[in-house]
Each structure stands twice: as structure tokens, then as C-alpha cells.
Design a protein that fits this description.
The chain is α/β, with parallel strands linked by helices. It folds into four domains: about 5-150, DNA polymerase, domain 1; about 160-250, Beta Polymerase, domain 2 (2-Layer Sandwich), CATH 3.30.460.10; about 260-325, Beta Polymerase, domain 3 (2-Layer Sandwich), CATH 3.30.210; about 335-570, TIM Barrel. It is about 40% helix and about 15% strand. The strands form four sheets. It has a seven-stranded parallel β-sheet with strand order 11-12-13-14-15-16-17. A five-stranded mixed β-sheet has the order 2-4-7-6-5, sandwiched between helices. A three-stranded antiparallel β-sheet has the order 8-9-10. The structure holds 2'-deoxyguanosine-5'-triphosphate and calcium ion (2 copies). 2'-deoxyguanosine-5'-triphosphate binds near residues 201, 259, 260, 264 and 267.
Length: about 575
């Protein structure tokens, strides 16, 4: 059985969760969180590295954690985690999945109110017992009440798409290699590029007589199988991801692809369209009476219904039919359109690789420029740059640029927006830089008017290029802060500067709806990796997916420009 980095990271995150619920030492908890982050950001699979002595050299991983990594890889388990699981009621840990409930609040529920699971929590809410608990204000209580009255599956944890991909892609390759399999596609929300997936839907094309389902049993990542038929199987992969697999004949593969890609709303509209033309569309094909007109090819089905082929990311019934009818669909931005990355960290602050290593990784990712944007000095950031270190960093970049050919490093910084809207670095210190990324990293809970004023003030500073992760949400962990996004859009448009689509798997910020609003208003975007490790240029895929879901085209994206086109645009942002 092969252990994926995601398994190791998940084990460390779970330990951190359980330790927090127990009220353990904050440093210990942070060490596990950081280790999880490091492991997730690695460009290679630890289990395939072969040499366990190297684990302790990873940033933030000492001998103790290195030993735990070795234990997971060797045994698939971790004794320390098993012990913690036995100490914390499983129902209590599940409460972490509820909105607004982090470890501290879950701990309070457990210690003060002796709550052990959802049922206890629902009863305590109904009896008004949460009102007396610190940190459980009326809006949180109302939110909890509303999720707890829904069925558990409606609030089941959705998995971030990048995490799902670590299991989905090997599964796809396994299926594709089975004898007789002609094609495999991952469909459903995964194909539509949603930021999280509820489950994984797989579609396999094989001719009659090929036993795909029988071949499944050999798959190492398969945890349990919940249902099995001749052409269907469902089950759970070892990381907890549920899957639905369907086998179809090659002649209906395109129709099945269309049907199971969804969304449900999109599918319903398409079938109505067929119906209105006296045709019938199903997962087997587009039919006139009993005659199949099309089925093998997805694009032919759209075309037969008078529509241009609609990219899966747009299939949410958000205007794509009207656009496709009039041949007005956008030509969506692609990963290959990106020429550079304008938000990248190094070891100078909280990244794990050197300037040279990050540049080499950016080149390997096919880019021709990057802006190195390490953090400004500020409370929350370890080893943030002050003006002096920033100046030295710039010298190092100048030196490196002299040696590079066909690649350029831009000088940048990621600067905190302070609570009152000032920036954490002086205008004089920022003036020599090419790219200034500003962002909120603290005081997430200001009321909307204050938070909006804070951002607008920051955007008035003379040196601002990009407003990074503009809404501040962390998937499954933190909601967006309260912000009047329309006013921010107007300010960015007027200035002008750029809004980021941050590709970190848990950020994906802006989200698709905000991207669409920005594109409609003509506010261009910067698609950034926010890489803190060499493997994280892959985050650009996530930023591109998100941008595509928001209808963004190549020309809506700043970093699709060549360096020569970029430079004057960067200068134009300076006040
Ligand atoms: P998820 O899994 O919550 O992230 O979202 P999806 O879109 O992957 O939904 P899922 O897995 O329930 O179903 C996959 C696709 O199959 C869905 O996007 C469209 C199609 N589908 C499933 N159930 C229905 C249905 O009842 N009606 C229609 N029209 N399509 C359906
Ligand atoms: Ca699904
Ligand atoms: Ca499904």
C-alpha cells in the first residue's frame, strides 16, 4: 500500500485538531500544523523518496516528526494518533466540521457543557444552554441551529479539490490501465472545477464483456465498497473520499460525460432544450424516437441542440446557455496562457526554499517571470522583512537577474494592511519595488463598514499593485470577512490596481462568483500561486480553475502578459 503525502498531512492535522480539543500546548499544535503544510507542499511523494533520514531535513520537521512520518509510511498508521483518538469522543471531533466551530469552541462545548456529539449540541442549543458560553454569540447560535436541523449528509465535509486530486488522479490512471478500458474521465463537480467536491464521479468507457468492476478489487487505495453491480460501483477511498463509478459503452460515452458532469441544473436545462426540439437526451445519447442521433461525442450533442460546446467550468446555469446560443461564450483563460506569477515566498520569511530554488521551480513550471513577495515585518509574521532586510533582498535579486537568461525576477513584498488601513511598511521602503501585494492577515472580524474602509484606505496608498486573497476565507476553516465587495471593485477599477485569484488549495480567493463580478466590471485579475515551497507552483492550476469558473478570459488576467507588456501596466498602478 502506498502512502500519499496527503495521508501524512491529514494525520498531522488530525493530531493538531485533537490536541487543540484537549487544550494542549499551542507550540506543539502549531508544530503539527506546520508539518502538515510542509508535507502538502512537497513536489515529490515522501513514500517514494526511499530515504527516511532526509525527513528531518524538511523545514519545520525535527527528529520526532520525522520518526512519525517514517512510522506512517512503514505501517500506514500512527500510534500517537490512535491514542489521541481514544481520548477524544469521535462525535466531538466531528463538530469541527460545523461552520464557526474551531478547536477552541469545540473544547469549550466538551469541557463546560459536556457535549459529545451533534445530538448533544442540538439539545443544548434548543435548551438555550449555549447562550451563557463565551464565544457563542447569537449569530453563531442561529447558524448552528440551522445546520443541525438539516440532515447530516447535507453538512458532511466537502473535500478541497486539490486534496481530492491526490487520490482521484492515481485512481484514474489505475482504471485507464485496466484491460479493455478505452477512456476514463473524472466527471461531476471535479470536472467542473468546483473548489470542493462532495464525492468523486468516475466514468469508464469499455466494450461489452469487459469486466471493469471485477478489476477494482486490486486497487490499493480502495477502503470499502458500498455497492457493486455489473456496470456500477460505489465505495470509499482510503482518504475518506466517496466515489461513484460507472462503466458505459464507447458509443454513449459522450452522452454520459455530459450527464454526469452536471451540474444538475445545467443538465435539466439541456434536456428541456432537447425536449423542445422533439428529441430526448439521456445518459445514453440524444435520441429521435428510438434512433440514437449522437452519443459518442459530447460536443456533437451540444451542437445538435444549437449550442457551442460549453466548458465544464461554466455548467452551472449561470448564463452559459444564452451565451452559447449566440456564440458569445468566452474563450476561457488556460494554464498555458500564464507567463508569470506575482506572489511567491522564499525562506527569507515563511517559505521553505531559497530564492534560487523558487526561481528554478518557477522556470520548471514554464513561467518566464516571478515576483518574490516575502512578508513585511508585522506581528503575525515570523521573520518579516524590515526596510533594511528588504533592501538586501533586492540586492540579491539584482545579482540573480544578472546570471539568469530568459527569466526575470521582480522585486516585491507582501505587505500587511493594518487594522486602520495603513500599510505595515513605509512608502519610501516600498517605492523601489516592482510589485506590492497588500493583504489582510489580522482583525478578520471587523464590522463590514470598518473592514471596507480599511481596505479602501489601503488602496489609496501610492504603492499598491495587487490586493491579495481579497475576501480572506479559508475553506472549511474561516468564512470571508465582512466586506462591501462592490465598493472594493469600484476602488480597484478606478485606481487602477489588480485583484488576486489566490491558488492556495484552501484559499481559492477570489471565488468564482466574485471573479465573475470582477470580469463583468472590467477589473483585471492576477492569478497567483502564493507558493511557499517549490511544489506549490501547482497552485496556479487552482487559480486558473477558479478564474475559468468566473468566466475569465486570457485578456482579463494580468500575468498572461509578457514581461515587456507587464512593466508599463505595473508602473501605471503607482500613485
Ligand atoms: P458534489 O458531488 O456534491 O460535489 O456535486 P456533483 O455535481 O458531482 O453531484 P453528484 O455527485 O451528486 O452527481 C454527479 C452528476 O450527476 C451531477 O452533477 C449531475 C448528475 N446527476 C446526479 N443526480 C442527478 C439528478 O437527480 N438529476 C440530474 N439531472 N442529474 C443528476
Ligand atoms: Ca460528485
Ligand atoms: Ca456522485
Amino acid at each position: 500500500m502506498s502512502i500519499h503525502n496527503a495521508d501524512i498531512a491529514a494525520a498531522f492535522d488530525e493530531i493538531a485538531d485533537l490536541l487543540s480539543i484537549q487544550g494542549a500546548n499551542a507550540f506543539r499544535i502549531r508544530a503539527y500544523r506546520r508539518a502538515a503544510q510542509t508535507v502538502r507542499g512537497l513536489p515529490h511523494q515522501l513514500a517514494e523518496a526511499g530515504d527516511s533520514s532526509a525527513y528531518a531535513e524538511l523545514p519545520g520537521i525535527g527528529t520526532d516528526l520525522a520518526g512519525k512520518i517514517a512510522e506512517i509510511i512503514a505501517t500506514g498508521q500512527l500510534a500517537a494518533l490512535r491514542k489521541l483518538r481514544s481520548e477524544v469522543p469521535p462525535g466531538l471531533r466531528e463538530l469541527l466540521a460545523l461552520p464557526g466551530l474551531g478547536p477552541a469552541r469545540v473544547r469549550a462545548l466538551g469541557t463546560v457543557l459536556k457535549i459529545k456529539n451533534r445530538t448533544d449540541l442540538r439539545r443544548a442549543l434548543a435548551a438555550g444552554r449555549l447562550a451563557s458560553l463565551r464565544g457563542f454569540g447569537s449569530s453563531l447560535r442561529a447558524k448552528l441551529e440551522s445546520v443541525l436541523t438539516r440532515a447530516p449528509e447535507a453538512t458532511a465535509r466537502r473535500m478541497p479539490i486539490a486534496e481530492a486530486a491526490e487520490y482521484a488522479e492515481p485512481f484514474r490512471r489505475f482504471l485507464a490501465a485496466l484491460p479493455g478500458v478505452e477512456r476514463v474521465e473524472i466527471v461531476g463537480s471535479y470536472r467542473r472545477g468546483r473548489e470542493t467536491v462532495g464525492d468523486l464521479d468516475l466514468l469508464v468507457a469499455a466494450s461489452a464483456g469487459v469486466d471493469v468492476i471485477g478489476g477494482l478489487g486490486a486497487y490499493a487505495d480502495l477502503d470499502t465498497r458500498t455497492a457493486s453491480g455489473r456496470t456500477k460501483a460505489s465505495g470509499v477511498l482510503r482518504n475518506g473520499l466517496q466515489f461513484d463509478l460507472r462503466v458505459v459503452r464507447p458509443e454513449s460515452f459522450g452522452a454520459a460525460l455530459q450527464y454526469f458532469t452536471g451540474s444538475k441544473e445545467h443538465g435539466i436545462r439541456l434536456r428541456q432544450r432537447a425536449h423542445a426540439r422533439g428529441l430526448k437526451l439521456s445518459e445514453y445519447g440524444l435520441f429521435h424516437g428510438s434512433r440514437r442521433l449522437f452519443g459518442r461525442n459530447e460536443a456533437q450533442i451540444y451542437s445538435a441542440l444549437g449550442l457551442a460546446w460549453i466548458a465544464p467550468e461554466l455548467r452551472e446555469d449561470r448564463g452559459e446557455f444564452e451565451a452559447a446560443e449566440h456564440d458569445m461564450l468566452p474563450r476561457l483563460v488556460e494554464r498555458a496562457d500564464l507567463r508569470g506569477d506575482l506572489h511567491v515566498h522564499t525562506r527569507a520569511t515563511d517559505g521553505s526554499a531559497s530564492l534560487e530554488e523558487m526561481v528554478a521551480a518557477a522556470r520548471a513550471a514554464g513561467l518566464s517571470y516571478v515576483a518574490i513577495t516575502d512578508h513585511s515585518k508585522y506581528l503575525g509574521i515570523v521573520r518579516g522583512l524590515d526596510a533594511q532586510r528588504l533592501a538586501r533582498h533586492c540586492d540579491a535579486i539584482d545579482g540573480l537577474n544578472e546570471q539568469l537568461h530568459g527569466f526575470t525576477v521582480l522585486k516585491g513584498a507582501e505587505v500587511d494592511i493594518l487594522e486602520d488601513g495603513r500599510l505595515a511598511m513605509s512608502d519610501a521602503a516600498l517605492a523601489p519595488l516592482d510589485v506590492i501585494v497588500v493583504a489582510i492577515h489580522s482583525h478578520f472580524d471587523l464590522p463590514e463598514a470598518k473592514q471596507t474602509r480599511r481596505v479602501l484606505r489601503a488602496l489609496e496608498r501610492p504603492h499598491v499593485t495587487i490586493l491579495a486573497h481579497p475576501t480572506g476565507r479559508l475553506l472549511g476553516q474561516r468564512e470571508s470577512y465582512a466586506l462591501d465587495f462592490e465598493r472594493v471593485l469600484a476602488a480597484v477599477h478606478e485606481r487602477p490596481c489588480y485583484l488576486e485569484v489566490n491558488g492556495q488549495p484552501l484559499r481559492l480567493d477570489l471565488d468564482d462568483v466574485h471573479v465573475k463580478a470582477a470580469v463583468e466590471r472590467g477589473v483585471p485579475l492576477a492569478l497567483d500561486s502564493d507558493a511557499h515551497a517549490i511544489g506549490q507552483f501547482a497552485n496556479l492550476d487552482g487559480a486558473v480553475r477558479q478564474a475559468r469558473r468566473g468566466w475569465a478570459r486570457k485578456q482579463d488576467v494580468l500575468n498572461t502578459r509578457s514581461l515587456a507588456q507587464l512593466r508599463p501596466l505595473l508602473r501605471a498602478t503607482r500613485g
